[in-house]
Design goal:
Layout: H1 2-5, E1 9-10, E2 14-18, H2 24-30, H3 47-59, E3 67-75, E4 80-90, E5 95-102, H4 111-125, E6 130-135, H5 140-148, E7 152-158, E8 161-167
Parallel strand pairs: 5-6
Antiparallel strand pairs: 1-2, 2-3, 3-4, 4-5, 6-8, 7-8
Helix pairs in contact: 2-3, 4-5
Amino acid sequence: MSGTILRTVRTGRLDLVPLGPAHAEEMTGVLADPALHAFIGGAPLTAPELRARYERLAAGSPDPAVLWCNWVVRLRDEDRLTGTVQATVGDGGRLAEVAWVVGTDWQGRGIAREAAGALVGHLAGQGVRTVLAHVHPEHEASAAVARAAGLAPTGEEQDGEIRWRLDFPR
């Protein structure tokens, strides 16, 4: 699975490009709005901090049973990075926990919905059977993205967030 899962994924408007340290400079601007951290906590990272984070992510999980898959989201028409999507894949490639973020300047344009849907479809094509996401109960936009990607709320909570789930037929 690891040989094919982390590759560029194309949609009608977007390229999901495997994330690397070279993306840190542009992504620093994309993720600069403190409002992006309202539900997840923390604060925007500086370019050197983001580069160090991306270096760790690109190096991969220290657990050989877990695969870290991170993509930057490029809006082709503008040739700009607009956000990220990620999947942590485990359970022998059958389970993925996903997340997404789109910079404030690009929100409200369906980018998160398109990127998350492409990510979920890509994971299904790689043999993932269950997709999970954790969404803050007051984050209506993120809940709409999860719903559009086919996930449904489970009613379970973890760290103050609602667990969403999608199971693909076996």
